[in-house]
Design a protein that fits this description.
The chain has 26 helices and 24 strands. β9 (about 250) and β10 form a beta hairpin. α15 (about 495-535) crosses α24 and α16 packs antiparallel against α20. The longest helix is centred in the middle third of the chain and has 40 residues, at about 495-535. It is globular. It starts with 10 loop residues before the first helix and ends with a helix.
Length: about 850
């Protein structure tokens, strides 16, 4: 005490000083206590006995507070002392065990919210390790392109291959350059074995720039010669079984034979380059392949550079800017710029078109983070909501603890420990939900093959740290609320009206937010399902029924067509290079011979029977089944083609000649009524069919049968006679159309899962609030029933406030959700339906059904209670 004594103070004087300052605090507290009741003195005198005890406690509290602060050991025994932390844990455990119902609700609510957060954490934990296994990871950069033409601007992950040659020969500030071309044929044949492999062409120095270990073969010479190939160990096992693969020769589509010169170790999943085979880039420069040296050829071409140890990107980026300026100086309507992208910024990274493998961009991850927070934050609100709601019962506890010497920081830490303990219990439940939801979550992702959500020890550490942070965030509001309570407020017969109204407003606001969020997800599911149903039944302008598309896999198309037509159930067979209506088309720049301007036009290669087989409507001229099909340069165009080239009508268009890239001339043989050659997300633009049976990939079989299984079995037998051991791969046309819109199903699954979580959290929070409210109003219910109130009247009395909150939530959620879909999501598909009243009515019915079941399950029980039991203690 002497150490803290003011100068000139004796011990006795210091004691009186402590009492005086304590009395000063007491008078301040009494002034606050009496101020609100100054006009009700008779009531104060009637309750003098109670308030005298309050004064005694307050006086004792003030004196002890001053003495404790004056003692030397006061500052050593803080709220974070190990003994205090142990005490907090014991008290929290007892409190949770005492209030089992609210503990279960809190644990389940937070666990449901945490389950999706664990998915996000596991995903981010894996993505943060992408491409980190490369030895030169900090020195490897990819050249990306920013292109501008008269129609749009695009950011591409690719770059012209001719840029790599220019970098290697003219710029001295780099160590190495590697070209990659993602045009390696997928069909691989060895003897009687045939399978599909993913891969690309790469320069010989690919293995020195990137760290992909070679198990067999010489990395210095493996890709030096044309028509040499590297296989991964899993691909080699699929193709050769246990036999030796090095030295074998396999056939890869039209690219011919390749000699296997090495076996690569299977690359990790966290690589943005996903492949099973790598062929020598020199193969593309042989006589059997067209040289690719155009500055406008960006598709499937990638350029990587390796910079020195002590490097700066400024010099090479300045050089790339100069190269781009010189290369496109003569282009009037097309320009491009080149930039460097670090290897570690590729996945995850900025959204780019023409990615060669995985596409983990920041925009998609940001959406996932937002959706996670939309579920997790309401779960935290639930805990804060119920904790503040129980404040009326815990105020006396807090007041007495403060009177007995408890400090604000001690009260704060006590409630934080209680919340962290609940979060730890929720972690166990949420981890189980995480393991259940993980497979379905992987199925919804397009790039799931390049993702592994199996937790590592780092992931478990992230889970634990996240739980601690979540426990703090969920408990900080109620902890601050209780810690700031003054003993004079806590020990009143009733808390001050301002605090009660403030807490009630917070609780109601949280419930409204939760139900608004739940209704938003429910409405999203209903809207997307309605849009999907409308899309698959949209009139695409051609026949889809009873057409079976068969992947030819390099088989002679004419021979396959001739043999398949022999089946008695086959009405007609046609050939095509893509699947109409799914976006499986290519674009080409077309120029009218009399003009200098060119326009982008989409095209598909077919035979003479395709247009007739799909029931397309001819407006003028003829299809390829007449004389025009004898000429390889004949095309059949759509109506939008005429508009693009300002042609008056179909009759005028027939016979006109147009020029394709490379100087190829084509003549219009006929005009078709507009149809959806691509998906409904894009408008109908210029399109033409070109006759060329050497470039077709599919046989389109129109069948008429009542036994589909037997028919397909017969077609498969015919296929084996033509294709040997190649697998008969087929799919019905209408199924392929539906599969093209599978993103709707993914959207439905995501919204349904999130909606289920949101509704569960909202209903749990509502259940806890209803239980707490009915418990506090049981005596009121008893009095009302004694006075003659019916069960229905009491039920409506207890339920109306919660129904009002659901109505408010509906008024908030419906317009916001409508605006999101009407202005942002649905316009992403060019052909879509507007949101109707039926979708809103169905969503409201689902929400109110769930909410009313939750509310009535407790209010009806309270209304039926015997008033003798509820009023027994009065």
């Amino acid at each position: 005490m002497n150490e803290l004594k003011p100068p000139g103070f004796s011990n006795r004087l210091l004691t009186w000083y402590c009492h005086a300052t304590a009395l000063e605090d007491l008078l301040g507290d009494l002034e606050e206590l009496f101020y609100d009741d100054a006009r009700r003195l008779p009531l104060w005198r009637a309750r003098w006995k109670y308030n005298r005890r309050v004064i005694s406690l307050l006086f004792s509290y003030a004196v002890k507070k001053r003495k404790r602060k004056a003692s030397p050991g006061y500052y050593s025994y803080t709220a974070y002392h190990p003994a205090m932390l142990k005490n907090y844990f014991v008290i929290a455990t007892r409190s949770l065990a005492k209030h089992k119902f609210f503990t279960i609700i809190n644990v389940l609510g937070i666990a449901v919210g945490m389950s999706i957060a664990l998915l996000l954490i596991a995903m981010l934990s894996f993505l943060w390790r992408y491409d980190t296994f490369h030895t030169n990871k900090d020195r490897i950069y990819r050249v990306i392109s920013l292109t501008h033409d008269k129609e749009r601007a695009r950011a591409l992950a690719s770059a012209p291959s001719v840029l790599a040659s220019k970098l290697a020969s003219e710029y001295s500030g780099i160590e190495d350059v590697v070209r990659i071309r993602a045009t390696l044929p997928r069909e691989v044949v060895y003897g009687n074995n045939a399978l599909t492999l993913e891969g690309f062409y790469a320069d010989a120095n690919f293995l020195t720039m990137f760290t992909f270990p070679l198990l067999k073969g010489n990395p210095a010479t493996a890709l030096n010669k044309p028509h040499t190939l590297l296989l991964t160990e899993s691909a080699a096992a699929r193709l050769f079984g246990g036999a030796e693969a090095v030295g074998k020769v396999i056939t890869m589509g039209d690219d011919g034979d390749f000699e296997i010169t090495g076996i690569l170790k299977d690359h990790p999943k966290n690589s943005h380059l996903q492949f099973e085979a790598i062929a020598s880039y020199n193969t593309l420069e042989t006589a059997n392949h067209k040289a690719v040296d155009s500055w406008t050829d960006f598709r499937n071409s990638y350029v990587y550079t390796l910079l020195p140890e002590q490097h700066s990107t400024q010099g090479i980026e300045d050089y790339l800017g100069k190269v781009a300026h010189d290369a496109y100086a003569t282009e009037k309507k097309f320009t491009a710029q080149f930039e460097l992208q670090p290897l570690l910024d590729i996945a995850p990274g900025r959204p780019l078109s023409n990615q060669q493998s995985v596409e983990w961009d920041y925009m998609s991850l940001s959406i996932f983070v937002v959706l996670t927070l939309l579920i997790l934050i309401p779960a935290c609100f639930n805990y804060a909501n119920l904790s503040i709601a129980r404040a009326l019962k815990r105020m006396k506890e807090i007041g007495l603890r403060k009177v007995m010497g408890g400090q604000r920081d001690q009260i704060f830490v006590q409630f934080i420990v209680e919340t962290v303990l609940i979060a730890m219990l929720a972690l166990l439940v949420s981890y189980y939900l995480f393991t259940v939801a993980k497979p379905e979550f992987m199925n919804m992702l397009a790039d799931a093959s390049a993702l592994d959500l199996t937790p590592t020890w780092q992931t478990y550490v992230y889970f634990f740290v996240f739980t601690l942070v979540l426990g703090f965030m969920a408990g900080v509001i109620p902890a601050m609320y209780f810690a700031r309570l003054k003993p004079v407020d806590a020990l009143r017969p009733r808390p001050s009206s301002g605090r009660v109204l403030s807490a009630a407003g917070i609780r109601k606001g949280m419930l409204v937010l939760q139900f608004a969020l739940s209704l938003g997800f429910i409405l999203s599911v209903v809207i997307v399902l309605s849009q999907y149903r409308t899309t698959v039944h949209h009139d695409l302008g051609f026949d889809q029924q009873n057409i079976l598309d068969v992947d030819l896999q390099g088989v002679d198309p004419r021979l396959a067509k001739q043999q398949l037509e022999t089946h008695p159930a086959v009405q007609q067979v046609s050939l095509s290079s893509g699947i109409l209506g799914t976006g499986d088309v290519e674009s080409v720049w077309v120029k009218r011979e009399a003009l200098t301007d060119s326009s982008e036009v989409f095209r598909m290669f077919t035979d003479e029977h395709y247009i007739q087989n799909l029931g397309l409507t001819i407006l003028g001229g003829s299809d390829f089944s007449h004389e025009a099909w004898q000429h390889k340069n004949a095309v059949v165009v759509n109506e939008e083609f005429l508009k693009a080239f300002h042609i008056a009508d179909a009759a005028t268009a027939v016979g006109q000649t147009f020029e394709l890239p490379g100087g190829e001339a084509v003549t219009v043989a006929g005009v078709l009524r507009n149809f959806h050659y691509t998906s409904l997300r894009d408008p109908i633009r210029s399109f033409f069919f070109q006759y060329d049976t050497t470039r077709v990939l599919y046989a389109n079989i129109k069948i008429a049968t009542t036994d589909v299984y037997q028919t397909i079995t017969g077609l498969e037998a015919i296929w084996k006679n033509v294709a040997g051991e190649k697998k008969f791969t087929s799919q019905f046309f209408d199924d392929e159309i539906q599969e093209a819109y599978s993103f709707y199903f993914s959207m439905v699954k995501i919204c349904a899962y999130l909606g289920l979580l949101a509704v569960t959290i909202a209903c749990l929070g509502l259940l806890g609030m209803v239980v707490f409210t009915t418990e506090n109003r049981m005596k009121e219910v008893g009095v009302r029933k004694v006075m003659g109130a019916s069960t229905l009247a009491v039920t409506m009395l207890l339920s109306k406030d919660f129904v009002r909150l659901m109505v408010i939530a509906s008024l908030i959620a419906v317009p916001l959700t409508w605006l999101f879909f009407d202005k942002l999501y649905l316009p992403m598909q060019y052909y879509h339906n507007d949101i109707g009243a039926m979708e809103i009515v169905i969503s409201l019915a689902i929400l109110f059904a769930l909410g009313l079941v939750t509310v009535l399950s407790q209010t009806l029980k309270a209304a039926k209670a015997n008033p003798v039991d509820t009023l027994r203690s009065e």
